[in-house]
Here is the input.
Amino acid sequence: MATKSKGQGTVVALAQSLGAGVTKHLANVTNVTLEGSSYTPAQITTKLQQVVSLTTDVDAAKAATKAKLAARTAAMPALRTFISALVSYVKAGYGNQPDVLADFGIKPPKPRTPATVQAKAAASAKREATRAARNTMGSKQKKAVRGDVVGITVTPVTAPKPTEAAASASPSAGTASPVATTLTAPKAT
Here is the structure.
């Protein structure tokens, strides 16, 4: 088939061109044999028109779906707010009647069971272990941390001034930096 790698638009254009060619040049032919079957020019034109109409119908459906999706996207925030307000109203009015809430499709809130003393102790121990492992500190603990820097030595490095004789002897010689500083700090442990 000559249209293996062609897109839908190209196939539709080809079908339209083939239909026009069949109408123009094969109108007087009684039968055309294709793939072992015999077709009249009218049957060929009908099949080619089917390709065009199927593609056109799909494109129209896509456009309609796109329009409906855009309308839904625009309307849903306001509708969700409305639904949330209605749910709040129903919960406020019938919050202590689980059967009525079920009629509205709202699950009643589950009663909260307080944690046992053992569970609280285990959670506290786990929290402290995690903080110690991650070296997590609170804001007051962070303020208490101060760094101590000891052992810094500043050593000035001076180069002797070039003499006029040395400067005139080598005009391409570069100038040295008059002062260089070296800072050494001990490694933090």
Remarks:
- The chain has a mean pLDDT of 82.
- The two ends are 76 Å apart (CA to CA).
- The chain is about 55% helix and 10% strand.
- The CA atoms of residues 34 and 90 lie 68 Å apart.
